[in-house]
Design a protein that fits this description.
Helix content is 22%, strand content 28%. A hairpin with a 4-residue loop joins strand 2 (47-55) and strand 3 (60-68). The two termini are 27 Å apart. It is α+β, with helices and mostly antiparallel strands. It has one domain. It has one helix at 2-21, and strands at 40-43, 47-55, 60-68, 75-78. It has a two-stranded antiparallel ribbon with strand order 1-4.
């Protein structure tokens, strides 16, 4: 259950980051988080990861399952997005 909390927290930060970047100008959706294509694993030895889709609040959602087979380690997913940022861009939290 604790792992589920961290996944939700990671996705909340990710969504917050992208919504902050585009909040002053035109809103651009970079990903609907409904498909697994384009996502890559970041993991240490002893961590098994699986990525699939599941039912979301509306539509589908990305499901990220992990198993720490050796007790400790790290695991995550990443996706590269084509973003053209102006010279004076700023990230705020």
């Amino acid at each position: 259950m604790m792992g589920y909390f961290w996944i939700k927290a990671f996705l909340a930060v990710l969504v917050g980051l992208f919504s902050t970047v585009f909040s002053w100008g035109q809103t651009i959706s970079l990903d609907e988080f409904e498909k697994t294509e384009g996502w890559y694993f970041i993991q240490s030895d002893g961590v098994d990861l699986q990525l699939s889709t599941d039912k979301g609040r509306t539509g589908k959602a990305i499901r990220f399952d992990y198993d720490f087979t050796q007790g400790t380690g790290y695991g995550g997913i990443q996706k590269l997005f084509p973003i053209d940022l102006p010279e004076n861009y700023e990230f705020t939290f």
